[in-house]
Write a structure and sequence with these properties.
Elements: E1 2-4, H1 7-16, E2 23-28, H2 34-46, E3 49-54, H3 64-68, H4 74-84, E4 88-90, H5 94-97, H6 111-114, H7 117-120, H8 124-139, E5 143-147, H9 151-164, E6 169-173, H10 193-198, H11 201-214, H12 220-232, E7 237-245, E8 260-268, E9 271-279, E10 285-286
Parallel strand pairs: 1-4, 2-3, 2-5, 3-4, 5-6
Antiparallel strand pairs: 7-8, 8-9, 9-10
Helix pairs in contact: 8-9, 11-12
Bound molecules: adenosine monophosphate.
Amino acid sequence: MRIIYDLDEMTKVARGWLMGGSVGFVPTMGNLHNGHLTLIRTAHNECEISVVSIFVNPLQFPSLDEAQRYPHTIQRDLQLLQTVGIDVAFLPSQQAMYATSFATFVTPIGPVAERLEGADNTNFARGVATVVTKLLQIVRPDKAYFGQKDAQQVAIVRQVVRDLGIDVTLRILQTVREDDGLAMSSRNSLLSLPGRSAAPLLYQALLSAKSAIDAGEHRAAVIKQGMRDALTNHPLIMLEYIAICQPTTFLEVEQIRPGTLLVVAARIDNVRLSDNILWQDNGAWLL
Ligand code: AMP
């Protein structure tokens, strides 16, 4: 595994791959867990060359302080990447990615950028769009891998790739969960024991909503109220939002039909958790 810190070196290496087979790329912020590793193993299996970036992107956090508090476990992450057998770990520095002269941003607009995660954190969409555009530009992969866990990030990346004509195939993989259903996240380790016991309730509320929808209740307001009732009574769960929306635009829907996303975000122990399930166009659920 080659470790690359320098942007020019990454660009040069990527240029050398142009005829060398397909390149799979997994952008991450590190502190790797099995959710990341599933994306990384899939990229490694599907492509001749695999690249994983670890970069805590300050642009997408609500404040610099929150970005600085993000867990760094770089030595452990590199060991994990080594065991998977990827070709390149790309670890650009903040200064390399955003020099003091940096002045160009990719700014998505509209509800997908402004609602839910974007309402909470006005830096979110621009931060994600800018860093993903820059990383794709440097690594130039054939396929880029993202987790459905971050559904709004997926929608933003799809929009950017479509709008800017970026030549990459997006591979979106299902959310990887703990045995009790909690979506794996770097933040789960910050939960207290009681908080960790409460956290699977988010997924349970989504599954109860799915059961009601499968049983024929398609009014979004009714389903949302059921989820709200399930979550607001718990003393440790501070609900931030429940949304039932179109998965591309993130506009709310009134009637639930195939092609609808159910999303929930809450704070537990002041740790922000989010989860979602998707009723896909083909009628199958992505859980
Ligand atoms: P992050 O390091 O949190 O930016 O995540 C890097 C990538 O891993 C993103 O595309 C995430 O959506 C994805 N990811 C994070 N957690 C999970 C999970 N539990 N299951 C699947 N993908 C995940």
